[in-house]
């Protein structure tokens, strides 16, 4: 095994699926070379824009025909991942598919059949590690999606690894997370110490593990509002317009559409208004639009457990003096897709934003169409985006300021920092710089997309780290109860720690592997250098390492083809001859080149269809469903046989996951219920790594294809 560990995760959203490939250094390698401050950090995940691929529609489209989802949809993502995961590490690379809003609303039996088919197909048509369908292929509730997003945001901003650089006051150093899609909206944050103690039973306990094997625990509140995404909010808004007009009215005035635009009730443009069906006629009066959408927040709904925000949903009081939020998905696209913010990297400011939206919506539709045609807002902005942005902006302003309560007076600074330059804040967010606004819309931090999939994979990577003590509690999340034991609803990170000793003999090979990967999309000069390295590797290295180089360099030269397809043009220099020959079936897998994945630099002006890593898209099937799905709707969990993702781990097991304290007091815990985080540091020095040789991958539990593993049974 090389120095890198790999992971693949498919975000199965309501309007499409997106595959993400991540890699991180083997923990043994990191410990061997790490500096002191690096030992107390979380694993460093790396990805690349080429590692990502997306396609429409969402997997829920195959709810009535699950047997076709593999060949028609899933295979392309398996092929794409194989282009980047080294062939000799595929069997040690976990693959996950996490379904969100689209699959959540399928009937339970359709959910079960669909996810079972996806798992069986992936097990049959790939060698990725997929030992447990219930653990790796599942529907996640909105609360879990929000928690993963919170992990990703704080990891990228530095709230975890550099708390001293992100002090917001009162000992608080983490950031809140806001996500809005087409069907739902999520919030996740760590309340201040007073609120954390007052609402301890409402919090989730998150446990992670740093490079040195020590645990860090955080108390996080997370909830979701199903039905409060932009598309379903629009559906409810149109219903209110219908109620305010006579039943036989043909034209209904809509202040949330640009002036002069006429559409059907479903949002399709009407070119000839001579039909009998009712239509919406835009007036472009944004202030009226904000007022008309405010009642959709349902702020007057009964609040059974104060305090509450939207729709009577309980949320601990938010102290905006220490709780600073980042907003992704629609929070980013609706504020930065149009207007000058996208072009000048301007931070979100309520006064500036409202002025820009007012001016835009007041313009005549014919003028807006002409500006779109001339790429005024970028080549990816379509007429459909321009048609929807006025309503989306009004809804975002209402949710953000009247719903959640973010201060709106120009978003004044709560902490005055000397030399602070707000206009450059978007480009300087990262581990070495805190942002001081109560709210900031973001898409990428330090070049990496803020996606909940990153949070999930980070948790998995932390699970690969061996604990520093035998009785360490597992990594994961669950209910916040006292006692230091693993609660029944604890969700482990989903991995077995399998440390691989560092080997100094690997250094040259791994450098060559990295160069081969870069050469895949680099210059002829670098290709020539890699070729020389490959030749030296043949002369001086062992045969198995020659094979690994062959995989990396060969990818650069081979043409795109599907696994199992015949080779063209004979063996050539890199053929399966004596030089780079293969002696086992394990090396028969062939990596694809294929066309490079599209550039998903969402930090630039992007089409909102790129926003389906959550559940947001103007074409979201779920987001356009009629009626209101209440936030209190219970999500059906997918019932799979075997070890469940929601099963508790035995006390003392060293896995990784999110956990809860159960009040039994059986085991001591470093967690203080009134605090936000406690690092449980070992008094012992790091022991030297045992064993100098490689551990056999043949005995790896992640490589076993157990004959006892069976598909999920129908109920």
Automatic annotation (TrEMBL):
Sequence intervals crossing the membrane: 525-541
Keyword Amino-acid biosynthesis set for record: no
Active site: 145
Gene Ontology cellular-component annotations: Golgi apparatus; membrane
Region Disordered: start-end pairs: 598-628, 692-715
UniProt-annotated binding residues for ATP: 182-186
A GO molecular-function annotation: GDP phosphatase activity
Origin: domain of life: Eukaryota
GO biological process terms held by the UniProt record: CTP metabolic process; UDP catabolic process
Stretches with biased composition (Basic and acidic residues): 611-622
CDD domains: ASKHA_NBD_YND1-like
Alphabetically ordered keywords of this record: ATP-binding, Hydrolase, Membrane, Nucleotide-binding, Transmembrane, Transmembrane helix
Pfam family, one: GDA1_CD39
Ranges of Acidic residues composition bias in the record: 598-610
Family per record: Belongs to the GDA1/CD39 NTPase family.
Protein name: Nucleoside phosphatase family-domain-containing protein
Protein species of origin: Amylocarpus encephaloides
């Amino acid at each position: 095994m090389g120095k890198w560990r790999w992971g693949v995760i498919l975000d199965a959203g309501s309007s499409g699926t997106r595959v993400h490939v991540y890699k991180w250094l083997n923990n043994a390698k990191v410990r061997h070379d790490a500096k002191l401050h690096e030992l107390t950090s979380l694993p460093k995940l790396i990805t690349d824009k080429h590692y990502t691929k997306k396609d429409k529609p969402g997997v829920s489209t195959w709810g009535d025909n699950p047997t076709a989802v593999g060949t028609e949809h899933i295979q392309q993502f398996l092929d794409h991942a194989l282009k980047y995961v080294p062939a000799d590490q595929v069997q040690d690379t976990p693959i996950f598919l996490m379904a969100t809003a689209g699959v959540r609303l399928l009937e339970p039996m359709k959910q079960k059949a669909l996810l079972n088919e996806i798992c069986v197909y992936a097990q049959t048509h790939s060698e990725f590690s997929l030992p447990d369908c219930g653990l790796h292929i599942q529907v996640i509730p909105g609360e879990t999606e929000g928690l993963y997003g919170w992990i990703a945001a704080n990891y990228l901003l530095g709230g975890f690894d550099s708390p001293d650089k992100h002090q917001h006051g009162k000992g608080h150093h983490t950031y809140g997370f806001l996500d809005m899609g087409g069907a739902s909206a999520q919030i996740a944050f760590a309340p201040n110490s007073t609120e954390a103690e007052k609402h301890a039973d409402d919090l989730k306990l998150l446990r992670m593990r740093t490079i040195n094997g020590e645990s860090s625990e955080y108390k996080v509140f997370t909830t979701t509002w199903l039905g409060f995404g932009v598309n379903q909010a629009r559906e409810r808004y149109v219903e209110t317009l219908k109620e305010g007009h006579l039943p036989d009215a043909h034209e209904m005035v809509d202040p949330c559409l640009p002036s002069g635009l006429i559409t059907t009730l479903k949002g399709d443009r009407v070119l000839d208004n001579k039909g009998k069906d009712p239509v919406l006629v835009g007036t472009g009066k944004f202030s009226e639009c904000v007022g008309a959408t405010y009642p959709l927040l349902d702020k007057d709904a009964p609040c059974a457990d104060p305090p509450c925000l939207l729709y009577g949903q309980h949320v601990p009081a938010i102290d905006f003096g220490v709780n600073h939020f980042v907003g992704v998905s629609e929070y980013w696209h609706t504020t930065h897709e149009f207007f000058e913010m996208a072009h000048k990297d301007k931070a979100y400011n309520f006064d500036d934003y409202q002025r820009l939206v007012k001016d835009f919506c007041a313009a005549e539709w014919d003028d807006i169409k002409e500006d779109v045609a001339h790429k005024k807002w970028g080549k990816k902005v379509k007429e459909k985006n321009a048609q929807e942005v006025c309503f989306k902006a009004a809804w975002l302003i209402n949710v953000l300021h009247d719903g959640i309560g973010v201060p709106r007076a120009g978003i004044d600074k709560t902490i005055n920092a000397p030399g602070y330059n707000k206009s450059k804040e978007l480009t300087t967010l990262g581990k070495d710089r805190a942002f001081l606004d109560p709210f900031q819309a973001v898409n990428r931090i330090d070049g990496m997309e803020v996606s909940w999939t990153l949070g999930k994979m980070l948790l998995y990577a932390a699970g690969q780290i061996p604990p520093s003590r035998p009785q360490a509690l597992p990594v994961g999340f669950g209910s916040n109860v006292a006692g230091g034991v693993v609660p029944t609803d604890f969700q482990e990170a989903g991995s077995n720690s399998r440390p691989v000793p560092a080997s100094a003999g690997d250094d040259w090979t791994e450098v060559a592997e990295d160069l081969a990967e870069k050469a895949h999309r680099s210059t002829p000069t670098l290709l020539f250098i890699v070729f020389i390295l490959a030749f030296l590797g043949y002369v001086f290295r062992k045969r198995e390492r020659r094979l690994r180089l062959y995989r990396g360099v060969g990818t650069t030269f081979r043409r795109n083809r599907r696994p199992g397809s015949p080779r063209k043009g004979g063996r050539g220099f890199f053929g399966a001859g004596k030089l780079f020959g293969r002696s086992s079936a394990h090396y028969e897998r062939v990596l694809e080149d294929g066309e490079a994945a599209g550039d998903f630099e969402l930090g630039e002006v992007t089409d909102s269809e790129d926003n389906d890593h959550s559940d947001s898209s103007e074409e979201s099937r779920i987001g356009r469903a009629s009626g209101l799905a209440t936030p209190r709707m219970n999500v059906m969990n997918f019932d799979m046989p075997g070890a469940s993702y929601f099963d508790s781990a035995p006390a003392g097991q060293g896995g990784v996951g999110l956990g809860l304290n159960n009040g039994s007091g059986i085991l001591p815990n470093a967690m203080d219920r009134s605090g936000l985080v406690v690092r449980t540091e070992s008094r012992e020095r790091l022991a030297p790594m045992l064993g100098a040789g490689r551990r056999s991958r043949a005995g790896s539990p992640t490589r076993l294809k157990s004959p006892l593993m069976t598909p999920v049974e129908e109920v």
